[in-house]
Design brief:
Strands 1-2-3-5-4-6-7 form a seven-stranded mixed sheet, with helices on both faces. The protein has eight helices and seven strands; from the N terminus they run E-E-E-E-H-H-E-H-H-H-H-E-H-E-H. Helix content is about 35%, strand content about 25%. The N and C termini lie far apart (about 35 Å). By secondary structure, it is α/β, with parallel strands linked by helices. The protein has one domain: Rossmann fold, CATH 3.40.50. Bound molecules: guanosine-5'-triphosphate and zinc ion. The site of guanosine-5'-triphosphate (GTP) has 21 residues, from helix 2, helix 3, helix 4 and helix 5. One of its GO terms (biological process) is riboflavin biosynthetic process. It catalyses: GTP + 4 H2O = 2,5-diamino-6-hydroxy-4-(5-phosphoribosylamino)-pyrimidine + formate + 2 phosphate + 3 H(+). It comes from Umboniibacter marinipuniceus. Keywords: GTP-binding, Hydrolase, Metal-binding, Nucleotide-binding, Riboflavin biosynthesis, Zinc. This is GTP cyclohydrolase-2.
Length: about 200
């Protein structure tokens, strides 16, 4: 999936002043954004998060997942570090879209886990792909990342695209009584790496 840069503006936030950069896939018209903070030092690994859209977690305070707290923690760490970037990818529901994610949540309400629910709806457990990051990173001249993630698929994807991941920071926040099963399933079935198998 290739994307083209559209425009940038300032984005003041509770974590300091970021810039927001719009990118669009000319074929699907899908819109993605990159948030940057400070001056990116492209000679070194840039502190970064690849974050998949989660309307319920990122914007609606859902406790079913850990997405909102992870996004906030990534912005906080970048601000504290003084520079970094977040690639915010519009691939809601691990790529199945919002309506299907709600269907999947309904199945989870009835006892399925997050992977079983996707599969019952005829989808793969995780339908995301990350090729749009290549154009985004090229736009900023970034070739090396320090990635904030627990997800090995993101590391594999970057390696596949020739982007060096020089380090990984675990991002383990937002665990609560409502998402215990969800997080356990990520560890057990999707390979997420948690330091104490939370
Ligand atoms: N289909 C589906 N998608 C979900 C569910 N819960 C969260 N998501 C989506 O999953 C994506 C977040 O993926 P996760 O696997 O939780 O985390 P990750 O971002 O891949 O990995 P980290 O970098 O470690 O946070 C977002 O697109 C969410 O909308 C669910 O129960 N079903
Ligand atoms: Zn979420």
């Amino acid at each position: 999936m290739s994307v083209q840069f559209v425009d940038s503006s300032k984005l003041p936030t509770q974590f300091g002043e970021f810039c927001i950069h719009g990118f669009q896939d000319p074929q699907t018209l899908k819109e993605h954004v990159v948030l940057t903070f400070g001056e990116l030092n492209t000679k070194e690994a840039v502190l970064a998060r690849v974050h998949s859209e989660c309307l319920t977690g990122d914007a609606l305070f859902s406790a079913r997942c850990d997405c909102g707290p992870q996004l906030q923690e990534a912005m906080r760490r970048i601000s504290e570090h003084g520079s970094g970037m977040i690639m915010y990818l519009r691939q809601e529901g691990r790529g199945i879209g919002l309506m299907n994610k709600i269907r999947a949540y309904h199945l989870q309400d009835d006892g399925a886990d997050t992977v079983e629910a996707n599969e019952a709806l005829g989808f793969g457990a995780d339908q995301r792909e990350y090729s749009m990051c290549v154009d985004m990173l090229a736009h900023f001249g970034v070739t090396k990342l320090k990635l904030m993630t627990n997800n090995p698929r993101k590391l594999d994807a970057m390696a596949k695209y020739g982007i060096q991941v020089e380090g990984r920071e675990e991002i383990k926040v937002g665990h609560n009584v409502h998402n215990e099963g969800y997080i356990a399933t990520k560890g057990a079935k999707l390979g997420h790496m948690f330091s104490d198998d939370a």
